[in-house]
Amino acid sequence: MASNIFEEYKTTAEIPVPEKLVDQVIGQENSVELIRKAASQKRNVLLVGLPGTGKSMLAQAMAELMPAEQLDDIVVYENNVDPQNPIIKTVKAGEGKKIVEQAQLEAQKEEGNLRMISMIFPLGWFLLSYVIWSLKMISDIVYTGTLLLGGFLIVGFALSSQLRTRNKVSVPKVLVDNSDKKVVPFAEGTGARAGALLGDVRHDPLQCHLGFNELYLEKEGKKGSYFVKKSFSELWNEMFSKYKQEIIKDEKGYEAIMLPAEEKIFTLGYKDGKVVLSRILSLNRRPFDGDLVEFSVDDKKVTVTPEHKVITKKGNKKAEKVSVTDKLIKLSLEKPIC
């Protein structure tokens, strides 16, 4: 097979290269399929791997696949109150240049007006002095004094002009310009180690419930999707058996299973006074050695760790901070939400 390739192409310049970067990726077929789906659904993808495995190339390829109709420009304004913290604003793509051009026109207009005044005023002074002197209304000595005063005016306006140049009108700058771009911009950041950019992820989205709290697994049926209620411990055992090789562990007993896109597991959340389904991206657990907090709501008891936040009428509170006067909100799924 190699000999046929060498016979067909004399140099590597003759080998056709696909236009899209995603079609140039070799050896990462599963990853390519994943980023295609994520790009079409406008989802995030976390790429973890050793250097040289193609993470940056896949990320850039995904950026090319993303739709560019919602791009923004980032405009930076000078902060006179705190110069070390400039004001950052986002505008629609293409608006950034218009804002800067408008600010430049206003600055030029203001500068032009000041220059005109600095020229007209001394000339008017000299002209008025000459007319008064020619009409013999002032003596030669007074006229000489007016000329000297006019000279001082010219020097003063010249100095003020230089100061205006140094302290010119502030014009915003476009930090990110996405005008006329058809592809989503790609920016790469690197860190010295895995957690150098975003930090080490070691938190529990469920805030350490005991294993009997219930989650909702979305299933597809003949009449559409529906939800199956399962306990955390039951789901953990099920996912652990399916993705045993994918589990993350540390020396303190922390364990996490990153859920693939096809595993649609939800927990109940509370937003704007309504019960909503919140998608779970990972199942994780950790050992806990300490005093737990127990709540009784109607005929059910819930046991959580002290740092776990519960929903009250006054907002979220840590379990250890809840008092007898706080009214807890019970969340329940009355009907399937898809």
Structural class by secondary-structure content: alpha+beta
Cα distance, first to last residue? 51 Å
Main beta sheet strand tally, sense and closure? 4 strands, antiparallel
List the helices and strands in order: HHHEEHHEEEHEEEEEEEEE
Strand order of the largest sheet: 5-4-8-9
Radius of gyration: 35 Å
CATH topology grouping of the largest domain: Endonuclease - Pi-scei, Chain A, domain 1
CATH architecture level-2 label of the largest domain: Beta Complex
Query: Which stretches of 5+ consecutive residues score pLDDT under 50?
Result: 200-212
Total number of domains: 3
Q: Into which percentage range does the β-strand content fall?
A: 15-25%
Mean pLDDT value: 77
Shape: elongated
- DSSP, total strands: 14
What is the helix content? Answer: 25-40%
CATH superfamily of the largest domain: Hedgehog/Intein (Hint) domain
Number of helices: 6
The CATH class of the largest domain, by name, is Mainly Beta
Could you please describe the fold and organization of this structure?
- The chain is of the alpha+beta class and 338 residues long.
- The chain folds into 3 domains: 2-65, no CATH class; 109-174; 214-321, Beta Complex (Endonuclease - Pi-scei, Chain A, domain 1).
- It is 32% helix and 22% strand.
- It has 6 helices and 14 strands.
- The strands form 5 sheets. The chain has a 4-stranded antiparallel β-sheet with strand order 5-4-8-9.
- Strand 8 and strand 9 form a beta hairpin.
- Helix 2 (29-41) packs parallel to helix 3 (55-65).
- The longest helix is centred in the middle third of the chain and has 40 residues, at 95-134.
- The protein is elongated.
